Amino acid sequence: MTRKRFVTLSLVPAIGLLATLALVSVAGAVWFSLMNRTLRSADYDFVGAYNFLRLLRDRRFMNALEISALWEIITVLGTLALAVLLAVMIFETVKKPLWRNLLCFAFLVPVLLPRVAAAFIWRFLYSPSLGVINYLCGLVGIGPVEFLADPSLALISVAVVDIWQWGLFFTVILLKLLETLPRDPIEAALLDRARTWEIHAYVTLPMLKGPLISLALVKAVESLRSFDLIFVMTGGGPGTATETLDLYAYQMGINMGGRISYASAMSILLLIVTTVAFTIIWKAGKKWAS
Amino acid sequence: MANISCTDIVKSYGAHPVIEGMNLDIPDHEFVVFLGPSGCGKSTMLRMIAGLEEVTGGRIVIGGTDVTTLPPGERGVAMVFQSYALYPHMSVADNITFGLRRQGIARAEIAPRLAHVAQMLGLEPYLDRKPKNLSGGQQQRVAMARAMIKTPKVFLFDEPLSNLDAKLREKLRTEIRKMHLQLKTTTIFVTHDQLEAMTIADRIVLMRDGRIEQMGSPDEIFERPATRFVADFIGTPAMNFLHATMQDGHVARAGNIALRLSPTDFPRLRPGQNVELGLRPARMKLCPEGTPGALTGTVVLVENMGAEGQVITDVDGHEMSFTTPAFRGLAIGDRVSFAIDPGHVHAFDPQSGHSLREE
């Protein structure tokens, strides 16, 4: 057996399984999206692009699109900003390996938590009557603040939980990356009279540009699957203030309307939009990093 | 431009001392080389002068300012690293001008200074390139330009040529020397290569185990090594050593080998005293057999070095080598005689290793 044939044969089962799982469901969704099926009745018609055309006039869909984009931007930028800030701070202030490792260990804990558990914990922390955050706010004379019930605060409040989980995790990764950088350019910058923040802004972080872009992409993909967190914390509310596309699709298709054809069309559109967006971002990122 | 003075410098990592009480004065304009085997503390000493390493004890003064506790950027020093330490994501021009920009110097002033150093080091065609697109020699030139443009009080070189191939090393060595003749900036250059040290230095500081073994001009170090260690470390091929006992008439004898030492150089040697003789291969010459004071042995190996050859011989059970331009007539097993001028014989105390020569 030639090597090439061996490689092909060993790849077939895994790829076959993946293709079955992915393609069948995508094909199923496309099939559904072209009809007007609901969970209420068994009969249905073929309606062509009707669902897609209706989506473009659906203001709630447009709102969900906007919330999804906002959610992506807030969580990705927030996570990276927190990680960069904390990693640089720890890198500069905590020099003892023991303390650094203990901190890293502590920072890994949040991401190990199942997201549903994190959501419940933070919902309790945010609670206007029982939550410790509102208790602290009360001490300085603010509040009670309706973190999850105030439409202008709810999305940020949920994003804080996501950033708390992933930002601390990325802090650990970034800190370890900073430790692997060669000392010499940093020392050269010291001799070039660069201040601490200048060393990181002009030398270390640009040297980590590649890994930072990868981390941003990983987080962007990860942020797309925040259904569980948002669902537990706000359920998309108040109103539609935190309703992302996946939540809206769920509400439409399974929870309220049972209009699975309409929800399928939404999912297909989401799939296309994210694929195109990520391809563009990936290409741009690669170009920028080189 | 400035002199450097280090007083009672101590450096220890935990309980482990690396440098113990080092005193060093470097006058203005001098080109000093820290030389020594790896782990002798020469790089640590340089990094302490640069401010990259904290001093455990002692004082460092550069140009009349006590810099012992000053951060690296405020000491007026510029350093060239062994790894070049260029900023990989910046263009050559940005690398060179990074320090000036951090000092808030106006762009209008930076441009002519950049043009000047780029022209001096032949970097004009590469200013827009990234370091990774340059050869090792070009990268090291960029590192030198980055140091020069700051017009520092002191240049520090930390084994800058170690990563280059032999030919390029020689070329850059000459360039560094020429640059020093032109700029006259006080310079400290760290290396473990004794030939590099000999060719480039005004003064060599030879270090061993965190202490200064000998300090002096290359000639002094080569011709008047203060200890056996210095004698062994300097010179290629390495010095021959021979344990001998003094006899009457200022003759040192080891078996059948007898060498007369100069009574003016070694007036205190007494008959019966044990000495360790040091004979430089380059100071010995082929001579006819039977010449008084000549050593006679059989050829073990001949190493061709181009213009000269190193001949390794067996003299009465001792392996001795000498260099001669006439090596091509010699073959393994030949009997050869070679002699050394008594003025070039070194003698060391076998216990302390100190030279027994009196100035």
Give the gist of this structure.
The complex is a heterodimer of chains A (290) and B (359). By secondary structure, chain A is mainly α.
Give the topology, please.
The complex is a heterodimer of chains A (290) and B (359).
Chain A: H1 3-33, H2 50-57, H3 59-93, H4 97-112, H5 115-126, H6 132-139, H7 151-180, H8 183-191, H9 196-207, H10 209-223, H11 227-233, H12 245-255, H13 260-289
Helix pairs in contact in A: 1-13, 3-7, 3-10, 4-7, 5-7, 5-11, 7-10, 8-9, 10-13, 12-13
Chain B: E1 4-13, E2 16-26, E3 31-35, H1 42-50, E4 57-62, E5 65-66, E6 77-80, H2 92-102, H3 107-120, H4 136-148, E7 154-158, H5 166-183, E8 186-191, H6 194-200, E9 203-208, E10 211-216, H7 218-223, H8 228-233, E11 240-247, E12 251-254, E13 257-260, E14 274-279, E15 284-286, E16 295-304, E17 309-315, E18 318-324, E19 335-340, E20 345-348
Parallel strand pairs in B: 3-8, 3-9, 6-7, 7-8
Antiparallel strand pairs in B: 1-2, 1-4, 4-5, 9-10, 11-12, 11-14, 12-13, 14-20, 15-19, 16-17, 16-19, 17-18
Helix pairs in contact in B: 2-4
